[in-house]
Design a protein that fits this description.
Strand content: under 5%
Distance between the termini: 38 Å
Number of strands: 5
Order of helices and strands: HHEEHHHHHHHHHHHHHHHHHHEEEHH
Structural class: mainly alpha
Largest sheet: 3 strands, antiparallel
């Protein structure tokens, strides 16, 4: 495929969900048509993402399908986009998750006076902006999209979330927005360095990598800190994580999938795209700080997950632990650990996205997010229990699931350079087995109990709540729900047994990043 043809694919990836958002926004009075239209646009986007993957050459230039037009010439700002192997896998996974989120929420009841058209237009707008963040190759453009993509998520949580949705939405927005402002200060500092070095300022990523990476360590550290704070909030790393449990708990299930499965990855993506190549010496100097935060996140997230009473907050703390693994993999500076970290980003999106969707299906049947309100659901919904178990096993990185290869590469790659941090991180693996199996046992085994599920009566799939004398049918997965979960199940098993296609795409970009840091052999 020619360069211009491949550029068209990236342009389409940016434009399709944006156009879809505009079209669906005008269908506020027809929920069914809005859902059908949004699903159609999301499926087309997925098809283009698959074509973009097929057109990508792992052995080619780092940035491919590239295009650029002037935006603010006086400041050297361009609308420049291109993808590398890391951006490609994240764009592909968001292309997969959006139609699944739309399909999972097909019969979901929205708050009064809220339309499906408004909700789904925000979902598609979120997709367009997130693709733009992963593909941006102009640092100022990246900053703008980094901040603007907060807006649809703010409204998705604030307008469609739970009882404390406004608090969660404002907290999410303020944390990320303030982090972005600090990143802007570092971006301006890098621009000034380029102006002093070249005679004119620029925000071009490749140029800034060349200029800033040659700067003295003291200057690099200031640039590093500004970008790092923004990315550490977004990731999120402990202690900058406190917005995530509230946002995940209050967000609708589909929105939680995109928030935890995709948006958070912008932080770890930023480590790889911006921090390491642009500030290599500062990254190596301050790596112990990040490793401490990563290990703290692994242990803290795992311990807090075991204490949760709410299933959605449980997922948030599990993800905090997983992001700790990703941070350790990135800042251990070995080829294996870096590849493991990137595959962890992808596989976390798949496994956790599946687990959140399954939890959403449990909540629809039980009417509660509290773990104590459930028990014995495997008797009523054996297929749902099976999907839940697979998603849980993938979350704890059981061999044969997609997450295993990620965690294995992170640990084996990190041990040679950072044995102490790696040993501490392995404790998180033990805790993961405890908290995932604990959740599964509480929800699906034992007697049928709780506020909605008290006792099996009236035949299979029917429960009775004695306090109100009412019967409620608890049905197993519908055909639509199985169709939504099937692609994720296939990826959990497929990547688990044959990860080569993913590793082949990721590895050259990781090697390019390590070369920029001055670690060509994956060692110290």
């Amino acid at each position: 495929m020619t360069s211009s043809s491949s550029s068209i694919l990236l342009i389409a990836l940016l434009v399709i969900p944006l156009v879809g958002a505009i079209v669906v926004a005008f269908l506020r009075d027809n929920d069914r048509l809005a859902k059908q239209t949004a699903l159609g646009f999301s499926i087309v986007e997925l098809a283009v993402a698959i074509a973009s993957w097929a057109a990508y050459d792992p052995d080619g230039a780092r940035l491919q399908q590239y295009f650029s037009v002037d935006w603010i010439p006086a400041l050297g700002v361009h609308l420049s986009f291109g993808i590398d192997g890391i951006a490609l896998v994240m764009i592909a996974v968001i292309g997969l998750l959006v139609p699944l989120v739309i399909g999972a929420g097909w019969t979901e009841k929205l708050p009064a006076e809220r339309s499906a058209g408004g909700f789904l237009s925000l979902i598609l707008l979120q997709q367009a902006l997130t693709v733009g963040v992963f593909a941006a190759t102009d640092v100022f453009l990246f900053y703008v999209l980094f901040e603007v993509m907060l807006i649809p998520m703010y409204f998705l949580i604030g307008n469609y979330g739970g009882a404390r949705r406004q608090y969660a939405a404002v907290k999410f927005f303020l944390y990320s927005f303030l982090g972005g402002l600090i990143m802007l200060a570092s971006a301006i500092g890098a621009y000034s360095m380029a102006s002093d070095e070249l005679g004119s300022g620029t925000f071009d990523w490749a140029t800034l990598v060349r200029v800033v990476s040659d700067a003295p360590l003291e200057n690099q550290i200031w640039i590093f800190l500004g970008f790092f704070l923004a990315f550490a909030v977004k990731a999120p790393l402990v202690p900058l994580h406190t917005w995530l449990p509230d946002a995940a708990a209050e967000a609708p299930i589909g929105v939680a999938v995109l928030l935890v499965g995709i948006l958070d990855k912008v932080g770890t993506f930023g480590f790889l795209r911006y921090l390491l190549p642009m500030t290599p010496e500062a990254s190596k100097t301050l790596a112990p700080l990040v490793l401490v935060m990563g290990v703290a996140g692994i242990l803290y997230g795992a311990l807090l997950a075991t204490m949760q009473r709410d299933m959605k907050r449980f997922i948030a703390y599990v993800s905090i632990a997983h992001f700790g693994f990703i941070a350790v993999g990135i800042f251990a500076f070995s080829a294996q650990s870096e590849v493991g970290a990137v595959t962890y980003m992808l596989n976390h999106s798949i496994a956790t996205g599946m687990l959140i969707l399954v939890i959403g299906m449990v909540i629809v049947r039980g009417g509660s997010t509290l773990i104590a309100d459930y028990g014995g659901m495997a008797k009523l919904t054996p297929v749902l229990a099976g999907f839940f178990l697979v998603a849980g096993l993938a979350t704890l990185s059981l061999p044969g699931t997609n997450s295993f290869i990620s965690e294995f590469l992170v640990l084996i790659g990190s041990y040679g350079n950072e044995p102490v941090y790696t040993i501490l991180a392995t404790v998180g693996m033990i805790l993961a087995a405890m908290y995932v199996l604990w959740l599964y046992q509480r929800v699906f085994h034992g007697p049928v109990r709780g506020n909605a599920l008290i006792d099996v009566a009236g035949g299979p799939g029917t429960v009775v709540a004695p306090e109100i004398g009412a019967r409620k049918a608890i049905l197993d997965l519908s055909g639509r729900e199985k169709l939504v979960l099937a692609p994720l199940l296939a990826l959990v098993v497929g990547i688990g047994f044959y990860p080569a296609p993913v590793l082949d795409v990721i590895t050259p970009t990781v090697n390019s990043t390590l070369d920029a840091v001055g670690i060509s052999d994956g060692g110290n």
